[in-house]
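Re: duplicated header lines in exported structure tokens

Our pipeline writes sequence and tokens for each protein into one text file. With two proteins the header for the second block appears twice in some exports. Here is an export where it did not happen, for reference. First protein block:
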Amino acid sequence: MFTCTTNSPEETAHLAELVGQKIREGTVLGLEGDLGAGKTLFVQSLAHTLGVEGEVTSPTFNLMNVYEGICPIYHFDLYRLETEDELEDIGFYEYTEDPEGIVVIEWPDKFPQCMPEDYVEVRIERMGTESTKRRFTFASVGERNQEFIKELESFVYLSH
């Protein structure tokens, strides 16, 4: 696990770019944070780093967006879902097991029991109500992503 701080939306976007440079196909990211914490901004920058052209939006109403970049990016927003059955309806389990794609899930804490065995938890915390400063905590849930977290930590600190 490691923690870092960004002081502005631009720094948050840069952090997501760094993640995009190190992320591997088959990785699932679970983004946790309050409304307005910066989850969608993070996904936008990550997706553009991975070669997605055009607009990247939060799938709040469609629940899932698929973007084509250097690999498929499956972007879920679980905020409006009420039951686990709805996850099945949108193909959640099939997409989270795709070894050739990258999955980003906003609000994974709504259905923690449905998350894959291995994923990267990204917790985004506001540092004050009016501040643009954010604390990011990256943690590996399961064994698979522990090395990725270590590499990412080194890369982020070397890039500052």
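Second protein block, exported in the same file:
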Amino acid sequence: MRKIITLVALFISSVCYGQCPEVSSEVEAMIKQHAESVRGGEYCRTRQVVKTESAEVVLYTIEGPCYKDEQSRPGSCGNHYFRNMTGIIDGKKYEKIVVGGKGSFLAKSLSIDEGVIVVEGLSYAKSDPMCCPSVSGVRKYQFDTGSFVEIEP
């Protein structure tokens, strides 16, 4: 009976917490390298992944970056976060770009439309608390020789 309860508990926890969306090993390494370089922690359950025949683009979150604070455990330095985008397009690695974060733009979804990456999310009105941006917005990016370049509206 004890084993059954343990198995049920493990099953429920895996269903409740879910899995991290899968990405290629190359993209996984790019995200890991970025997290390590800022001494932050990736919250992988918030990944948004878009794959096409020629592209794999990922929106991911780095939390609590410690930067040069060697005393603290990576990912434990504050409650701020950054939403970043990286990927591989036509076999070429695209460097990460910050597309939002606490206090700026809450990037919520990612899509590719006719070769343009579309990031939908929320911005902050002057009266919004830090927890709750309320202004809907869209940011668009194009591919440009290994970099994502924001298309100005």
